[in-house]
Write a structure and sequence with these properties.
It is built from 18 helices and 18 strands. It is 43% helix and 16% strand. Helix 8 links the parallel strand 11 and strand 12.
Length: 475
């Protein structure tokens, strides 16, 4: 008998896919689904199901799933709820293992829709099928090129971030924003009404998935919350779990219940359980993006921090001071540099501020440097300083952004200590240079506070891991 991981594999690594409700009309979802599978380069075979046409986008169409000459691993439905409930029976005859139902109009819409959903679940379970949805955007896998529904962002580069979202629109927006930050995904699930396979089932799956390093949850509420400690607590000692929780207020919770039928629950209760299980809750979507970026681009791409003593390197003095404030407020340390570091800096850049924060001081002298840029010089000194665990580089304004970008890429080539870049500027070519750095896996943040808080999330996770591994809790 297949174990749970084997069963859920069919959502991400199917060899044969039937799209039930495929359409030749470019305006319909059934056409977009077929097109997405073709455009994204899906590695298996796609079988459009539509009794009214012979071909869709160059693929032979079949009147029913029973007419397909091979067994089907994954069936994707783009049909109204009442029709899904009628034709789901045919999937069992083709040994379908996984079903995705994009359509709305099920339990979230009232008693009639609930009856359709109940029938869907009953037939699927009798036939040994797992169901994602209904009322969802589907799944995506960058390895197998399984695409999700009507979205415009299809990440090309495979990474270690895997997502579970109870909101199709919210999860899609997060992925779009993260993609712009250079974050690389592995798997994405938008789970909708969660009629069968639950958020917790996919968390458990990601926990054993070799391609997943970081788990991000766009969460309304847990259907089977009694499993949180059993599933997430041991998992979070190995992989960070970051949650963006919506439905935190009374009004939001009511809206969540009407949207997917989810019971959101008290945020105070969730925070308490999250602390015990080792889940890092991001207070907003910006923080969620920052936390994920920090884990992906530092924790899993460079050396894990030996500690959380921050060495700050800046051009002008004021932004460096602002970074020091942000670090202290985020619970980080900003220690003084050692005597040898001060000596080296005074010799390399006379007039520079030989302390932490470290700034370059006399810009007219710095402009004459030939062998290496001032940021690289200062980072080398911080790199060798045994008082410093993580380096924060605060970038310039809009002047010569290409030069700063190139210097950061040079630093990336030699600096083995974890480092982040804070670039509190915009306009001109700055945004293009920021994009270049993010696409080169640099942990870059727009403000001092966002960078410091992201490092603070790493520290919090380290603390959680220690507590979980020791199995010691104190509220």
């Amino acid at each position: 008998m297949e174990n749970k991981k084997d069963a859920l594999d069919y959502f991400f690594y199917p060899e044969t896919v039937a799209i039930i409700g495929a359409s030749s009309d470019p305006k319909k979802a059934g056409n977009a689904l077929v097109k997405n599978f073709l455009d994204y380069g899906f590695k298996g075979k796609v079988f459009p199901i539509n009794p009214k046409v012979d071909e869709i986008l160059g693929l032979k169409a079949y009147p029913t799933i029973e007419a397909v000459p091979v067994d089907i691993d994954l069936a994707v439905f783009a049909l109204p709820a009442k029709i899904v409930a009628k034709v789901i029976d045919g999937c069992a005859s083709k040994n379908v293992k996984a079903v995705i139902v994009h359509s709305s109009g099920f339990a979230e819409s009232g008693p009639e829709g609930k009856a359709y959903q109940d029938r869907l679940v009953s037939v699927a379970r009798d036939g040994g099928m797992k169901v994602v949805g209904p009322n969802c955007q589907g799944v995506m896998c960058t390895e197998s090129r399984v695409p999700w529904s009507r979205r415009s962002t299809f990440p090309e580069r495979t990474g270690g971030v895997s997502v579970i979202s109870q909101s199709g629109g919210g999860g899609g927006s997060f992925v779009n924003l993260a993609h712009e930050r250079g974050i690389r995904f592995n798997k994405i699930v938008t789970i909708g009404n969660e009629c069968d396979v639950s958020v917790m089932d996919f968390i458990e799956y990601y926990g054993e998935d070799d391609g997943t390093n970081i788990i991000f949850l766009y969460l309304e509420g847990f259907r089977d919350g009694e499993r949180i400690l059993d599933v997430i607590k041991p998992l979070s000692a190995r992989k960070p779990v970051i949650a963006y929780k919506i439905g935190r207020t009374t009004v939001g919770a009511k809206a969540a219940a009407s949207h997917t039928g989810s019971m959101a629950g008290s945020i105070e209760v969730y925070d308490g359980v999250f602390r015990q299980a080792g889940v890092i809750r991001a207070p907003g979507i910006d923080e969620a993006l920052d936390y994920v970026a920090a884990f992906e681009k530092i924790w899993f791409s460079r050396e894990k921090p030996a500690g959380y003593r921050i060495g700050i390197v800046s051009g002008p003095g004021g932004p460096g001071v602002a970074m020091a404030d942000a670090c202290i407020e985020a619970g980080l340390e900003v220690p003084d540099i050692n005597t040898e570091s001060k000596k080296r800096l005074n010799e390399a850049i006379p007039g520079a501020t030989a302390s932490n924060p470290m700034d370059m001081g006399d810009f007219s002298f710095v402009a004459k440097l030939k062998e290496e840029g001032p940021y690289s010089m200062m980072v080398r000194i911080m790199f060798d300083d045994n008082n410093i665990d993580i380096i924060a580089i605060v970038g310039p304004g809009e002047f010569n952004p290409e030069g700063f970008r190139d210097e950061i890429l040079n630093i990336q080539s030699f600096c083995k200590k974890p480092f982040i870049v804070i670039w509190p500027s915009a306009g001109g070519n700055v945004e293009d240079c920021k994009k270049d750095l993010r696409n080169n896996n640099v942990a870059l943040f727009d403000t001092q506070e966002r960078g410091a808080n992201a490092i603070g999330a790493l520290k919090k996770y380290d603390y959680f891991r220690t507590r979980i591994n020791e199995d010691v809790y104190d509220d």
